[in-house]
Write a structure and sequence with these properties.
5 strands, Rossmann fold, 53% helix, 8 helices, alpha/beta, 211 residues, binds thymidine-5'-phosphate
Length: 211
């Protein structure tokens, strides 16, 4: 990849932590760097990926095996990397992705109990050496997130899991951040929005994304 490639930022967290509000804020910050910012999401981001997203999240596929779920996530990701993320970075754009492989470690690894070696094999296969330059995890207690999310819409196939599933998801996110502090930052999302956004500016500056 050329030396002038854009930066790849991913946003993570359990439901109800304010991912959508803060995604718009991060996009504005990234645009201030003078580069175009492509905002995208996983699973999704391409016509095939969005079709796979529907299959993954709709209740029609209740009881899908964990391995099928894992492989569909990576099928969507392979298409997304090939068609959107890598070309955008190579063209010098920043890419902000709402969820990426850390979600797979958290949901399919922590939540479903798939061994993380299987996930890292797929990660290495599909991504090669590409990893996000910075992953921002918005963190709040499961109860807080679920209360906020519950006020919004009917839960999809994954959101309807029980609290202990989301406790494992949250725990895995925090573990990932402690293993890779140079590229994964945890932000306390249980405080006022202004304070959340101050923390976002701080970590993006600290990680050399913002000047
Ligand atoms: P979203 O609605 O917050 O974009 O997320 C879609 C759902 O997909 C969410 O419940 C998390 C889940 N998910 C996984 O389980 N594994 C993954 O790798 C990704 C990207 C998302």
């Amino acid at each position: 990849m050329s030396g002038d490639r854009g930066r790849f930022i991913t946003l993570e967290g359990i439901e109800g932590v304010g991912k959508t509000t803060n995604r718009d804020y991060i996009q504005r910050l990234l645009e201030q760097t003078g580069r175009t910012c492509i905002v995208t999401r996983e699973p999704g981001g391409t016509p095939l990926g969005e079709a796979l997203r529907e299959m993954l999240l709709e209740h029609r596929h209740e009881g899908m095996s964990s391995d099928a779920e894992l492989l569909l996530m990576f099928a969507a990701r392979a298409e997304h990397l090939h068609k959107v993320i890598v070309p955008a970075l190579e063209a010098g754009n920043n890419v902000l992705c709402d969820r990426f492989t850390e979600a797979t470690y958290a949901y399919q690894g922590g939540g479903r109990g798939i061994n993380d070696k299987k996930i890292s094999e797929l990660e290495n296969w599909v991504q090669g050496e590409l990893r996000p330059d910075l992953t921002i995890i918005l963190d709040a207690p499961v109860e807080t997130g679920r209360k906020r999310a519950g006020q919004r819409s009917a839960p999809d196939r994954i959101e309807k899991e029980k609290n202990d599933f989301f406790e494992r998801v949250r725990h895995t996110y925090l573990e990932l951040a402690s293993h890779y502090p140079d590229r994964i930052a945890v932000i306390d999302a249980g405080v006022d929005l202004e304070k959340v956004q101050d923390q976002i500016v701080h970590v993006m500056t600290e990680h050399g994304i913002l000047a």
